[in-house]
Amino acid sequence: MADMIRAEGLVKRYKEVEALRGLDLVVPEGTVLALLGPNGAGKTTAVRCLTTLLVPDEGRAEIAGVDVVADPQGVRSRIGLSGQYAAVDEYLTGFENLTMVGRLYGMGKAQARARARELLDRFDLADAGDRPSKTYSGGMRRRLDLAGALVAAPPVLVLDEPTTGLDVRARQQMWDVIRELVASGATLLLTTQYLEEADKLADDIVVIDRGEAIARGTADELKSQAGGERIEVVLAESSDVERVRGLLATATQGEVAVDDRTVTVAVDQGVHALRRFLDDLDREGIAVLDVGLRRPTLDDVFLSLTGHAAEDGDEPAGSDRHPSRKEVSA
């Protein structure tokens, strides 16, 4: 597969702050790469460099084989961008918003109008298409924004935290839309601070912290770096904690963690270790409220990689401003 997005050694400075510190990215055709990190980690700066809205101070990048600095207009004709905030004109209807985007991309009036209706149907917005977008819910506005990114049928999509601020139901709807786009062959760069989102949607994940890629791999590969699977047991009686700690330490030789009546230990052979442990509990007559095999979350991964929880990084205030549709299509 060809690489549809490639960045090598991207550096971007804002006066004394280095928002990107030699970032490398590769996204093969038809795949999803999640750029995962907290607010301020440099994700949006990377997006702005890749979409020609910022010029990197060092390094180079290509979109579909086109250099982002040497031929920015060529790059813009090959990408669709949807960001943290829905870039729609609230005084225009959904149909008028999409028609405007088509005209900005150079489509004729009839073609732009036809494409707008097609996308309204695709994103389940046809019934609301002739209403002002200011009457739309947050999820509807976000779907309209994503539809705008697809007006020109670009081969590459860049979604910058597309589900920020959405409730659980609206986020699930957006995930379904994104899965459909990927199934149709789109290449996608997704930035997110939602660890579950990266886990569910991405083929590969790059974890970014303070402008640097600190890890990359599939969700399973990254989770394995956090110690693999864990046996976790919640005891009925706190007086049994030390007995269970001893059983787990003997059975697994791992470090046992205790939090009130919850006892946890990392294990290599998860299912087999759990089966042996359950036999031990039964033999010792120890009552439990809950016991199970837990996989580490990507939150655990971030903590194990960085030594700190996901927190605001050093990206300057204002650098995360979402570009308007007019900026990208101009």
TrEMBL record:
SUPFAM superfamilies: P-loop containing nucleoside triphosphate hydrolases. Its main location: membrane. InterPro entries: AAA+_ATPase, ABC_transporter-like_ATP-bd, ABC_transporter-like_CS, ABC_transporter_ATP-binding, DrrA, DrrA1/2-like_C, P-loop_NTPase. Coiled coil: none annotated. SMART domains: AAA. Keywords: Antibiotic resistance, ATP-binding, Cell membrane, Membrane, Nucleotide-binding, Translocase, Transport. It is found in: Cell membrane. Residues 5-235 form the ABC transporter domain. GO terms for molecular function: ATP binding. The keyword Transmembrane does not apply. Pfam families: ABC_tran, DrrA1-3_C. Gene3D superfamilies: P-loop containing nucleotide triphosphate hydrolases. PANTHER family: ABC TRANSPORTER ATP-BINDING PROTEIN, DOXORUBICIN RESISTANCE ATP-BINDING PROTEIN DRRA. Belongs to the ABC transporter superfamily. Drug exporter-1 (DrugE1) (TC 3.A.1.105) family. This is Daunorubicin resistance protein DrrA family ABC transporter ATP-binding protein. It comes from Nocardioides marinquilinus.
